[in-house]
Design a protein that fits this description.
Layout (H helix, E strand, L loop, with lengths): L7 E12 L2 E12 L3 E5 L6 H8 L7 E6 L2 E2 L5 H7 L1 E4 L11 H5 L8 E2 L2 E2 L1 H14 L16 H16 L9 E5 L7 H16 L3 E5 L3 H7 L2 E6 L2 E7 L5 H9 L20 E10 L3 E9 L3 E5 L6 H8 L7 E6 L2 E3 L4 H7 L1 E4 L3 H5 L6 H6 L7 E2 L2 E2 L1 H15 L15 H14 L4 E5 L7 H16 L3 E5 L3 H7 L2 E6 L2 E7 L8 H8 L1
Parallel strand pairs: 3-10, 3-11, 6-9, 9-10, 15-22, 15-23, 18-21, 21-22
Antiparallel strand pairs: 1-2, 1-4, 4-5, 7-8, 11-12, 13-14, 13-16, 16-17, 19-20, 23-24
Helix pairs in contact: 5-6, 8-17, 13-14, 14-15
């Protein structure tokens, strides 16, 4: 049966989502028919989650139209989306573990089962059994607590809850169910169980939108796949046309620009290892991570959401304490209980959420730059404001920070200039290792290029850098080496010599 032979359930045309500093979605078209599993793939930040939020009524698009059951669809809230026949199961489950299955299915609808002050549990559990029977789901007891079931079964409980609300109790009404990374913490056996249940749902005419970074799963379960890159749709393929190579190539897109990432300034790492990580682990997030980081080296770490790279950097920066292995800094084992200890030792992190975590917005530029190293500005028992201002003036000129003066507060700066101040503070703190978590997120192209120059400046001073790039382009272009992570493990290491950089497709394979 071709797409034209199927009954259209949902349609989106020319969807655009514009934020103050970025265009998250542009020109997105999508059709979903009854009985289909639609795969949705793309790199982190490609726009997948933004589209799901629009469909679910969490956000309103800035342009474009949607239809559901052939009628205009403009949900202003998840409840309105439910009323129209759309439901979503988020990656973090929304079930209440210490309540029964039946209480979760009809959470918020208790008045329908209350006779005065008394709850009619028998009727609620009977109706719960009807919900499961309508969706051909077996082996779940309505009176049993949710926490007594494994994660895969809880997924099906939540899916049943979502479908029940989206169909308004009418099993003949077909719904669209959005599944955001539903397999991220499932075993292989649990994934197969989930896939069987998804197929039961589509056999009844419901449609499922399945988002995953695991391309083999996308190919296995999807009838059609939409591919996103940089907020645009770059391909739509049927199950018969799919291959991992095709998905890799469409997701990755353009090649690296040598000039943009200042590859001609890429330093050769020195022999001295400034940081060693030996079998490092954080329970539940990553394990057995080992690598050496040398002076003047840029080490890129690539992985999808949940791969463990963010948590690894949190441990190195003192935000989390590791549970296994050890960290060795300049030949000495270290363990950080807080960020200030890591900074004092010479490991400084620049977080991706710089407005919330990386800067003190109500303080001036000179206060932000000098706050991480007060000892350098001490004169006797006091802090020398004169010295603070001299150093700040140096960094404003050195980094070409566009501002009305060093007394300007941080909230008045653009994203790129605010990031330069955060860089200046890190270098002023005497960093030996600089951890850059998405250093160019939310800044324009010109500011990005200036930040890349700052990274090269740091390595020329002997500083070692760990970078979690905003894109694969960025990570490849900046790095001397790249580690890929998947499911908390390091999967591959790539050498990134100038003129012999790895292909993006190869990096993606290590991540997937």
């Amino acid at each position: 049966m071709t797409l034209s032979d199927k009954k259209l359930l949902f349609k989106a045309q020319n969807i655009e989502m514009r934020f103050p500093s970025t265009l998250a979605l542009q020109g997105i078209d999508m059709e979903i028919c009854e009985g289909e599993v639609i795969g949705l793939v793309g790199e982190n930040g490609a726009g997948k989650s933004t589209l799901l939020k629009i469909i679910m009524g969490v956000q309103r698009q800035t342009d474009g139209t949607m239809e559901m059951h052939g009628k205009p669809y403009e949900p202003k809230s998840p409840r309105e989306a439910n009323d129209a026949g759309v439901g979503m199961v988020f990656q973090e489950q929304a079930l209440v573990g210490n309540l029964t299955v039946g209480q979760n299915i009809f959470f918020g609808q208790e008045k329908n089962y209350r006779i005065g002050p008394i709850m009619n549990w028998k009727k609620m559990y009977h109706d719960t059994e009807k919900v499961f029977a309508e969706h051909d789901i077996q082996g779940i007891k309505p009176s049993k607590k949710v926490n007594d079931y494994d994660f895969a079964t809880r997924q099906m409980i939540e899916i049943s809850k979502v479908i029940s609300r989206a169909t308004s109790g009418d099993p003949s009404r077909k719904s669209v169910i959005l599944l955001d990374e539903p397999t991220s913490v499932l075993s292989a056996q649990e994934i197969q169980k989930l896939f069987q249940e998804i197929r039961k749902l589509t056999a009844q005419g419901h449609a499922v939108v399945f988002v995953s970074h695991r391309l083999d799963e996308i190919i296995n379960i999807s009838d059609r796949v939409y591919i996103f890159k940089d907020g645009r749709g770059v391909g739509q393929f049927t199950h018969e046309e799919l291959s991992e190579e095709l998905l890799y190539e469409r997701m990755v897109g353009k090649t690296t620009s040598k000039e943009y990432y200042k590859e001609n300034r890429q330093c050769a790492p020195e022999n001295d290892a400034v940081l060693e990580v030996r079998n490092l682990g954080l329970y539940g997030y990553f394990k057995n991570v080992s690598f050496c980081l040398h002076k003047s080296e840029v080490l890129g770490i690539c992985g999808v959401v949940g791969a463990g790279k963010e948590e690894l950097c949190d441990v190195l920066a003192g935000l989390e304490g590791h549970t296994t292995g050890e960290i060795v800094l300049e030949g000495k084992p270290v363990r950080f209980g807080q960020v200030s200890q890591a900074v004092s030792a010479g490991i400084v992190s620049i977080p991706k959420e710089r407005r919330e975590e990386g800067q003190l917005g109500s303080l001036s530029i000179y206060e932000n730059i000098s706050i991480s190293n007060p000892k350098a500005f001490r004169k006797g028992a006091l802090i020398s404001e004169k010295k603070q201002r001299e150093v700040t003036d140096h960094w404003i000129k050195e980094m070409k920070i566009r501002c009305s003066g060093m007394d300007s507060d941080m909230n008045s700066l653009s994203g790129g200039n605010a990031q330069k101040v955060v860089f200046a503070r890190a270098l002023c703190a005497g960093a030996k290792v600089l951890i850059l978590n998405h250093p160019t997120r939310g800044v324009d192209v010109g500011a990005k290029e200036e930040i890349y120059s700052l990274i090269r400046d740091a390595t020329e001073q002997g500083i070692a850098v760990i970078v979690l790039g905003d894109t694969l382009d960025e990570c490849i272009g900046l790095s001397n080496r790249i580690l890929t992570m998947k499911d908390g493990l390091v999967t591959k290491e790539f050498i990134c010599q100038v003129g012999h950089k790895p292909e993006q497709v190869d990096i993606v394979k290590g991540m997937m």
